[in-house]
Design goal:
GO terms for molecular function: oxidoreductase activity. Keywords: Oxidoreductase. Belongs to the short-chain dehydrogenases/reductases (SDR) family. The protein is built from twelve helices and seven strands. By secondary structure, the chain is α/β, with parallel strands linked by helices. The protein has a single domain, classed as NAD(P)-binding Rossmann-like Domain (Rossmann fold). It has a seven-stranded parallel beta sheet with strand order 3-2-1-4-5-6-7, with helices on both faces. The longest helix is centred in the middle third of the chain and has 29 residues.
Length: 319
């Protein structure tokens, strides 16, 4: 066997192994590797981690994962009562004291509160190590029927509020010479999600803005974009529709093929611990679709247009 044949054989073996890894994965292969062989979430111990949207869903369960890791937490959302309940649960994990968890209820759409909020966190803990921009809203409506004001609202909620809070915290991180910005994006930030044009556009914008920040601020500031697929949460209940002021008020079905919120949060924490740039968190077939869109964009586009909106929506909703 000559060298070229040997290399060809090894390459085939490598590709087969990677394919098998992908078929059993519920996240991208980089994150799968980090979970097995990378840094544990223990590296986040005593780090000051600020989680927005922490009163429910992925943000709530991410707070629990960080509490187990020993992080000092800042919990932000609009609903103080729910935040206090999350804090109580966080304190039940590990050797945390009451002073290790700050409940900071604010409406992130009130941009004037962002700088004072940053100052309050620094006054309490002296630093901000990680900012997790998790707060956001979903949307379900046909592109052509969606009011322009809904488009504006989605950008305000899912993009501009994130930029504003990050810009408020960034000078402190730069002064310290280090910091980590984590954004809750979506697979909709990678591929178009039919009947969610405003949401998809907002997540694409979020990805682009922070991809630029990652390059401009490296190596002082690390940026991680988390891209989950279908996950059990209250996203549909509060999702906007085609008209301003309306919400879907829809509950997810128990038999949907969605990832559990706890598992998603666990993978998010691992991505944070390893400071990965971008991760995809989803079960199949959505995970495979994201891979195809990334590495075979022309073929993917041709197929996806012909799959049809109904089939695409079923896959997106885990059905």
């Amino acid at each position: 066997m000559d060298w070229f044949t040997a290399i060809e054989f090894l390459l085939i073996i490598y590709l087969v192994v990677q394919l098998l890894r992908l078929l059993i994965a519920d996240c991208d292969l980089q994150l799968q590797w980090a979970e097995k062989f990378g840094k544990s979430t223990g590296v986040l111990a005593r780090k000051v981690v600020w989680v927005t949207g922490a009163s429910s869903g992925i943000g709530e369960h991410l707070a629990y994962e960080l509490a187990k890791a020993g992080s000092r937490l800042v919990l932000t959302a609009r609903r103080e009562k729910e935040l206090q309940m999350v804090k109580k649960q966080c304190l039940s994990y590990g050797n945390m004291m009451d002073a290790d968890v700050l409940v900071l209820p604010i409406d992130l759409l009130n941009f004037e509160l962002h700088k004072p909020a940053v100052e309050e966190v620094i006054a309490r803990f002296g630093q901000i190590d990680v900012l997790v921009n998790n707060a956001g809203r979903g949307q379900r409506a046909a592109w052509e029927r969606t009011d322009l004001q809904v488009d504006r609202d989605m950008l305000e909620i899912n993009v501009l509020s994130v930029l504003s809070l990050t810009k408020a915290a960034l000078p402190h991180m730069l002064a310290r010479g280090e910091g980590h910005i984590v954004n809750m994006s979506s697979v909709a930030g990678k591929i178009g999600a039919p009947l969610s044009g405003s949401y998809t556009g907002a997540k694409h914008a979020l990805q682009g803005w922070f991809d630029c920040l990652r390059i401009e601020m490296f190596p002082k500031i690390h940026v991680t974009n988390l891209c989950p697929g279908p996950v059990f949460s209250n996203l549909l209940k509060d999702a906007l529709t085609e008209k301003k002021g309306e919400v879907c008020n829809t509950e997810m079905k128990k038999d949907d093929r969605r990832m559990s919120t706890a598992r998603c949060a666990q993978l998010c924490a691992i991505a944070m611990a390893n400071k990965l740039d971008e991760v995809w968190i989803s079960q199949h077939p959505v995970l495979l679709v994201v891979y195809c869109s990334q590495y075979m964009p022309t073929i993917f586009s041709w197929i996806f247009k012909r799959v049809g909106v109904k089939s695409a929506m079923k896959m997106r909703e885990g059905r």
